[in-house]
Design goal:
The chain is α/β, with parallel strands linked by helices and 208 residues long. Helix content is 35%, strand content 25%. It contains eight helices and seven strands. The chain has a seven-stranded mixed sheet, sandwiched between helices. Strand 2 (67-71), helix 4 (74-84) and strand 3 form a beta-alpha-beta unit. Helix 2 (20-34) crosses helix 3 (51-58).
Length: 208
């Protein structure tokens, strides 16, 4: 079984009992940290039940580009679609069941890439692909669990990417973003009950 298939199966099983409140709080913080513009082309990478895509779509004008929401789990995308129904116009979110890496977009076609609670499963190939997809000067925002508070279940512990170092501090996350080729990296620690998440924003070099 491929890693994508294993992740899809694991998240399909979680789709009906997903912790929406936790992920919505992460989404709010991530969106505020990156602050996408109303006219930006935005992708929600490994979107899960669409916490980022849904919150962003609700805050944008109807003339805005659809938010691209991509996840390998059909169950998660189905839940996301159901949650979005009646809250945003159907065209506000472009739901896709697909591998998050590579993103199903043309080179240099996005202004913002957002990835909440998923990068530690995708691996370092994900930020490399984001750089392909982003326009010069485009922005990226991602979260990672704080290493000191990360306790994955047995089902998911084997899926954690070995080439993404979980940060122990916000500074470590910013340094890693710079190592991946991004500039202007800024990070903060978000406290959510007993859990800790590092939220990072950075920029693709070039443009303005």
């Amino acid at each position: 079984m491929t890693q994508s298939a294993a992740l899809a199966g694991a998240f399909d099983e979680l789709a009906d009992s997903y912790d929406h409140r936790h992920h919505e709080e992460i989404a709010r913080t991530l969106i505020a940290w990156v602050a996408p513009g109303a006219g930006d082309q935005v992708a929600d990478v490994a979107c899960g039940a669409g916490a980022v895509a849904l919150q962003l779509a609700r805050s944008r004008p109807e003339t805005a580009h659809p938010v691209l929401a991509v996840d390998v789990s059909p169950g998660m995308v189905e839940v996301g679609r159901a949650r979005a129904a009646g809250l945003v116009p159907d065209a506000a979110i472009d739901w896709r069941v697909a591998d998050a890496v590579p993103l199903p977009v043309a080179d240099r076609s996005l202004d913002v890439v957002l990835c909440a609670s998923s990068l530690h499963f995708l691996g370092r190939r994900a930020p490399a692909d984001w750089r392909r997809a982003l326009r010069p000067g485009g922005r990226v925002g991602f979260t990672l669990p704080l290493a000191t508070h990360f306790r994955p279940s047995e089902r998911f512990s084997g899926q954690v990417a070995r080439d993404v170092p979980l940060p122990r501090t916000a500074q470590e996350a910013s340094v890693w973003a710079a190592e991946c080729g991004f500039t202007e990296a800024e990070s903060r620690v978000l406290v959510l009950g007993t859990r800790r998440v590092v939220v990072t924003s950075a920029r693709e070099p070039g443009g303005r």
